[in-house]
Amino acid sequence: MSKKLFFILCAGGAVLSFNVAASAALVPSIASAFSIPQFAAGKIIWLYMLPYGLSALFYGPLVRAYGTKKIEITCLFVFSCVNLAAALSSSFGWLCLCRVLAGVTGASVTPLAIIMISRRVPKEKRGGYIGLFFSSTFVSSMIGVFLSGVLPWRWIFFIPAAAGFMLLFPLSFSLPEEFPGRERFRMQYVTALKYRRVAGVCLYIAAISLLYHGVQQWLGVYFSSVLNRGQLEISFLMTLSGISGIPGEAAGGRFADYAGRRKAAGTGVLLMAAGLFLLVLRPGAWLLSISMFIWGFGWAFNHAGVSTLLSDLPSSVLNEAASLNSSLRFLSGGAGVLAGGFLLRRSFTAGFVVFGIALAAFVLLSGKLLKEKQKERGFSLDQALK
Q1: Considering only 60-74, 145-159, 244-258, which range has the smallest mean pLDDT?
Q2: Which residue segments constitute the domains of the chain, with CATH numbers given?
Q3: Considering just the CA atoms, what is the radius of gyration of the chain in Å?
């Protein structure tokens, strides 16, 4: 893969990721701006995640049928427009609608990146590339969270809108136009899920995303309502979690190439559980910062390991698997936000304990769900459909 193409993929991921994590940090400010309760304002999170998850299912099959260039340019243009509209929104209802449309169009970026890296990078180097791609998204996310503490909340939507419009020009010249076989549009998920490796990875992704987002998206509320932290300190803590994800993604990808994808995933989950259990103690400033660093590093380490394993899947199931990855991460993540809100509004301490125990126990299941060796050789979607 050329450096220029890889940079374009990373830039697209950065535009997409800029305000995803920042939205959680902005919940208190948006609630204040529209004079609504914080838990009500929190719907801007799952109203982005659920449409993202549903829409991601279409992009893998669409890429196979129509190629990459037209799809990605169209999605980036609409994504930029709705972020601009969100920045100018005069009501909370309008902001919610913009978040829905942003989720629908933003869902194209990650499946495209995984598919292109898998096609153009040798297996022994994919972990490094995938780690760097997601590190770029964490850098952007971290910048967004940091700026959410020093800029008015509307600017957190203006910035990705402007960046997206500027990226359209180099994207139109650098992204290859691929029409692999000019296949007709088919969504072959039922057949793909009959392949045990795909089914196992998908179950794993769904479970880990539910547990992570069930905590992550309510941390801003926890810091504000329980620990009495101001917006600047909330943004700092969320930024710290993002910063730790930068080396976490890179280290997780390298570790996946060196020690195996499954070991990288399990190590990341254990680190997440450790960071969460520290939060139960309602720590002071230093220990709170450490817990957030461990939490973010562990999530990124796990993410890189699982994403690299995903890129190793056979080409016959890769497009469906890449779309399922993004879809399940956001659908299950959105469900996690709802479940986390249900538990944590009653007791943050009890909720953190429940999620922490679930994470620690989940490591035991990874051996069955994440299989790195090909055991079902010769599997083909086209053969299965005949």
Answers
A1: 60-74
A2: 3-385 (1.20.1250.20)
A3: 20
